[in-house]
Amino acid sequence: MARDNSPRVRQRQQLERQQGRRASYDRILIVSEGSKTEPLYFGDIRSSCRLHTANVQVRPSERGTAPIQVVQYARDLFLNGDRHRNVQPRAFEQVYAVFDRDEHDSYFDALRLAESMDGALLNDAKHRVKFAAIASVPSFELWLLLHFEDIRTAVHRDEVLQRLKRHVPGYSKGAGGAFAATREHLETATQRARRLAARYSSFDAPEPYTGVVELVTLLIDLRH
Q1: Residue 90: left (phi > 0), alpha (psi -120 to 50), or beta?
Q2: 134/202 Cα distance (integer angstroms)
Q3: What is the pTM of this model?
Q4: Which residue, 10, 32, 174, 212, is most buried by CB atoms nearer than 10 A?
Q5: Closest CA relative to residue 38, chosen from 186, 194, 144
Q6: Phi-psi region of 131 (alpha: psi -120 to 50; beta: other; left: phi over 0)
Q7: DSSP β-bridge partners for residue 128
Q8: b/e for 124-160, b at 16 or more Cβ within 10 A?
């Protein structure tokens, strides 16, 4: 009998192989506003912790960098998948949309949309999916700066970047190596970020806040 080598069969076989390599912990989809900085940072954590790429997928938003676009793309990528990037539909237990406050008009709408989808989507195992916004006020670089400075009051994103460069010479948005350059002070940053989270939330902009600490902690804890 001739072997069925149709695209549908090949796709199913590829999925079966991928699932066979998958680890036992949750499948996590991370969609970021930035096309390089955040994907490289979370990708470095994934590599450092030796997490399976079949379980932890990091993708930049391909719909735009406005917060509402990041959340919408994360939702649609979860629901529909992307066979060109080996993302299967509904193949995750947790979905995170990572974006900055900056001066985006859609920031608060994005927070509310993400909240509305938490527990409202079902994955391929018919389980409710955690869906969360990972916001930073004013920017992702606040999380990196907290590794070196204890920020407690509102600060503009340009100042955050300027101060970060004093500690990480040569740092620029889109450059790699941020995790390696800061990981020595990870515990300090975690404590500082959690103190901020105890005082403020992502809705309290312009007060400093970053939810990146929760996502980083989640990924690092997966290795145990």
Answers
A1: left
A2: 9
A3: 0.88
A4: 32
A5: 144
A6: beta
A7: 122
A8: eeeeebbbbbbbbbbbbbbbbbbbbbebeeebebeeb
As given in the structure block, the two tokens for residue 213 are 């600490």
How many whole angstroms separate alpha carbon 16 and alpha carbon 183? 35
CA neighbor of 39 nearest in space, from 142, 163, 173? 173
Rg (CA), the chain: 18
67's CB contacts (< 8 A; 6+ apart) are 33, 97, 99, 100, 104, 106, 107, 109, 110, 111, 133, 135
Q: Would you write out the chain's pLDDT as a tens digit for each of its 224 residues?
A: 445 556 555 554 454 444 445 556 899 999 999 889 999 999 999 999 999 888 999 999 999 999 999 999 999 999 999 999 889 999 999 999 999 999 999 999 999 999 999 999 999 999 999 999 999 999 999 999 999 999 999 999 999 999 999 999 989 888 889 999 999 999 999 999 999 999 999 999 999 999 999 999 999 998 76
Instruction: Quickly tell me which residue has 């994360």 as its tokens.
Output: 74
